[in-house]
Amino acid sequence: MRVVFAGGGVISLLTAVECVSAGHEVVLADQSDIPFTGATSFDRHRVLRALHPGDLATTAAAVGAHHAWIEIEHLLSTAFYEQSGALTAIPAAEATAARDLLNAAGSKAEVFGAGELAAEFPHAGFVPGTGAVFESHAGVLLADRVLTACAGWLRWNAGAELRPHRKVIGVDADRAEVRLADGGILRGDAVLLAAGPWSRELLAPALARELVLHRQTMLYCDVPPADAGAWAATPAITPLGSDGGAWLVPPVAGTPLKLSAASACRVGAEVGGPVSPPWWREHLIDTFSELIPGFRR
Question: Cofactor(s) for this protein (predicted)?
Fold first, then answer.
């Protein structure tokens, strides 16, 4: 089978790797470089965790993703999964059920009381009195390395063809065809459209209306040398237990500390640049100034 991919983000690249591994041919077109540093999925790091309270099936599937990422690391011969674990702030009355859910799903989990959490991670900014559940089958994905490794693996594989700087302007799913801005047509036995911020015009109107664009502002921070050891031993924390849903990704493998909050996520009307309006930056600075001891500009 020959599969034509429209888009070069993480979903396209990972699916293309899976298709080639299964013996299929793939051709992948993107409007820019492959990988594209401006893509939604291109970032320094992303959190991988499993806990979905009250949902065993989804939690088990996320635990399976942990193992799948380890397999992909071996396949691509690239290290991009830092297994730092993850902490989720949770009310004390729900902590035991969350731990048991994770264990039933195949992960390893333990409960931290408020006192234990404050003693173990005094620098992390947990809301006083907050407890948490720690899951070991979790951590930080180095997203830019994932994309680069997938593209490199495909580029050297005879079953794959990458077409950078070939913008897709139309998709005919019934005929398994993709139309390009330069007038070219890519044909195959199946088409995969990796829907993203630039995909709305490629979808049928009914589907396009369901594609919602979200914008998320984040802070990338240098950690003081005196605190580097403590932060290096810190798991991903989503969330910290604050009203605004503050969360953080620790500095791993040379990355900065990454800070954001659910309150800094909003629906956007159109694709914008990488710089957020100043108000959102100030909102996050105010948020973490109240949470992380010694946090400053």
Answer: FAD
